[in-house]
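Risk mitigation, structural track. In case the binding assays with (2S)-amino(hydroxy)ethanoic acid fail to produce interpretable data, a predicted complex structure has been prepared as a fallback.
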Amino acid sequence: MWRELLPVGRYDAGGGYRRHAWNSADAECRAWFAEQARARGLALEVDRNGNQWAWWGDPAAGDAVVTGSHLDSVPDGGAYDGPLGVVAALTAVDVLRERGRRPARPVGVVNFADEEGARFGVACTGSRLAAGALAPDRARALTDADGVRLGDAMERAGHDPYAIGPDATRLARIGAFVELHIEQGRHLGDHPVGVAAAIWPHGRWRFDFHGEANHAGTTRLADRRDPMLGYAAAVLAAREQARRRGSLATFGRVAVQPGGTNAIASLVRGWLDCRAPDEATLDATVAAIHRAAEEQTAPERVRVAVERESYTPVVDFDGPLRDRLAGVIGAATGREVPVLPTGAGHDAGILSAAVPTAMLFVRNPTGVSHSPYEAAEEPDCLAGAAALADVLEELACS
Ligand code: HGY
Ligand code: MN
Ligand code: MN
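Fallback model:
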């Protein structure tokens, strides 16, 4: 499975992946998933929000045990973020069958649509829509860098964009959701597998700096309304405020209009990704970055407008489920399993508002993620899949 998926959507120059919502690489990933379901005799469903489900047993029976993750990537992302959880989920189903186990409850494998939000800006679009955490009108109107609306991209990929929206009935059939994911720091030490405790609250904010386009060679410094200076101040403030408050703040994306080397910009648009251990710290970090940008831009007569594009409150994963997972893996490996929080967002975090949810992490030896250099050792991936199989057996077969 891994070898088959590896070339799909890989951008040769840098080796990273460009599997973005509803593009051709995404379609290939989805076709791969459908084929994996077919080959196992699992019933494939594509829900109204574009998420794919492969069922062993009838989901209408309820109290289903679901596992899976996503197949899309960030721009030039790594191979593991998302796909490891889907491949491990399918592997876990195979292992249960090899063990001759017959689940007492339906078992589902899911591929959530558009987890990274790389193309349209909002992360976890598929799970957010299903959970009612993203308004369908807003989702349809999101645009990519070329001005293509999410609704139109979905329609071109063969999905009805007017069907999207809350899917409470589907979520109510799920008794437990477990997502396996590569760990995205370097926090597992000598343990191949860990269990998630919590996800830091996080969000994305768009900073628009409105200035005035003018000639780089003739406009006196005193006459300029240069929005780039405010943007630069915001970037520096992001680092400083995050350092002071124990948060993480990143401007990883910027768009400049008109974007000429010999022209002062009329608009600089920067996107801030901010995360913190608690919501008060998160809000204070963003407010301080906003203030620093305004202080810098006032003398230059540049207007700053900040819009929050997404926000995910703190997630504390279901305590009893987490303890049950840690117990099962601890018993199988003879070692206590690390239970750790993460700063990375996941569909599991969105689902946890509606469904008892847990996560397993597989060791990342370098800690690098959202990069072509993201890596995991094969024995650790196999240990993760084995742990997931044990967990599925515990949850679905007993
Ligand atoms: O950005 C995130 O935290 C996640 O990897 N989607
Ligand atoms: Mn990611
Ligand atoms: Mn991911």
